Amino acid sequence: MANLAKAFISGTVGAVVLTLIHETARRQVPRAPRMDIVGMRAIDRAMDGMGMHLLKRPQLRRAALAGDLLSNSLYYSAIPAATAGATWRRGLFLGALAGVGALALPERIGLGAPPDSGRPGNQLMTVAWYVIGGLATAAAANAYSRNRVPAASAI
Fold it and tell me: 20 to 30 A Cα–Cα from 69, which one of 29, 59, 78, 99?
């Protein structure tokens, strides 16, 4: 159970870092990658499909951010590994995979392309930001592992 908690906490660190990057860029960079819009589309379509009243934009945005934090936390929770080196490699690989998936999957699953995703700069930023989230997860997992007190020495 402790390993699952460590993995989820580490994954949450990476998800928070990724969300902070996205939100900062959204406010500061013209035509920044906008994965939050893809999340809002997903929630809007799911609610519409269930016949539920549609949320207003601020509510939809908050719901999308919460969903992003949860789903990215769970995804990044797969990064902690048995060794520090393996954890760093997983962070890099799974971060890059998430970035490529963020660009390629939304249109394929009916959510439309992310805004400005055809621009090479946005493609690079998207992949880089997900890699940073993966590496933040790896750093958190490795720091947690280094600082953990073995149960036998606590006696």
Answer: 29
Q: 2-40, pLDDT tens digit by residue?
A: 689 999 999 999 999 999 999 999 999 988 999 989 999
Q: Can you read off the two tokens belonging to residue 80?
A: 């902690």
Two tokens, residue 51: 């016949």
Look at residue 110 and give its three-state secondary structure: coil
CB atoms within 10 A of CB 39: 21
CA distance 18 to 94: 13
Delimit the domains of the chain by residue range: 2-148
| Three-class DSSP category at 64 | helix
Residue 138 CB-half CA count within 13 A:
21
C-beta neighbour count of 131 within 10 angstroms: 20
Q: Which two tokens stand for residue 105?
A: 């999957």
Q: How many CB atoms lie within 10 A of CB 79?
A: 29
- Give how far the C-alpha of residue 10 lies from the chain's centroid of Cα atoms, to the nearest Å: 12
Q: Which pLDDT tens digit goes with each residue over 37-57?
A: 999 999 988 888 888 877 788
Region 63-86 average pLDDT: 95
Q: Is 90 exceeded by the pLDDT of residue 152?
A: no
